[in-house]
Description:
The complex is a heterodimer of chains A (341) and B (54). Chain A is an alpha/beta fold. Helix content of chain A is 26%, strand content 23%. Chain A is globular.
Amino acid sequence: MIGVSIVGGSGYSGGELLRLLHRHPAATVQQVTSERFAGKPVSRTHPNLRKVVDLKYCTIGDLGHCDVLFLCLPHGEAMRRIGEFANLAESIIDLSGDFRLSDGEAYKKWYGREHVCPEWLPQFVYGIPEISRDELITARYVAGAGCNATAAILGLRPLYRSGLVEQVVIEVKAGSSEAGNAASDASHHPERSGAVRSYKPSGHRHIAEIKQALAADRVYFSATSIEMVRGILATCHVFMGKDLSEKEIWGWYRDCYKHEPFIRIVKDRSGIHRYPEPKLLSGSNYCDIGFERDTDSNRVIVISAIDNLMKGAAGQAIQAFNIMHKITETAGLEFPGLHPI
Amino acid sequence: MAECPVCGTEVPLGAGTVRGELIECGDCGSELEVLTTDPMTLGEAPEAEEDWGE
């Protein structure tokens, strides 16, 4: 069994990791840290794990050696203590934004501060298996991708591989769990309930990841929070260099994803679930992708959906963990979601 | 096998397939009609449009 510990386990991503790793056939959870809840049972913050996980939180200072350390710390904390964490584990999977960008200058531009250990950036593999599976096989350090970025990158990748994309406009609709479990004025129930709120019309940090992963010079990205707890729906308006046939686009998506266990092309011509819907993916690691060709222009509309805490965070981290350890890629991630929900 | 006229995937057809038979493409879900059996060719079957309140 592979011994794992979770640093910063009281948040939503930490809770999902714990849920998944506890039932994982090849992993044993050794320790889970929370400075705030040290000494308390993990079910205090993750009530779904009552009578399931019998562990108590410890502090980072209590951590012993393990095979893999999952970091679920606020942005900036992982890079500040990376040397300390690297001494505790053979491998690290970091779910924050600290090591996603390969360039310290880009980090400074998008995160508004200097990276404190840019020499570590080349050691991290960007953790979307569908684009970096070969590197993950030999990786020691993995940077979990941003949730919005994951939905956009996976949806757009087949079109970018064609070399025909001229411009892309991405509109993401996001659930409230994306903001984490810390309360704020914006998350206060009377303010948040029923809101359709443009929270980042431009300048979102995930733009940097999207550009890096797709080798795109420019992408236009806006994010809107909506009445939903889990889930992301990315609608990407892609302006192509020529008019494309439906068959061509189908071929690109099929070529790109036919062997991917967690990508489904959802484009039905009848019924009520014709295109991807995040609600149906709650708790699952799938990324559903659909597209439509605009017959009046060279625009292709790509629609992708994920659970932000699964394929957008913990689930994708487990997928990377499986690949790194040459375990069946779907191990621990078989849950197909619920319907109705 | 015959090619789906909508998405281009290869659609498996049984030995007893007859002209006019309706099948569904496993990839894109299109309802297809067997136009000819020698060679096997498929066309889009006419579909009743659903009203989504547009």
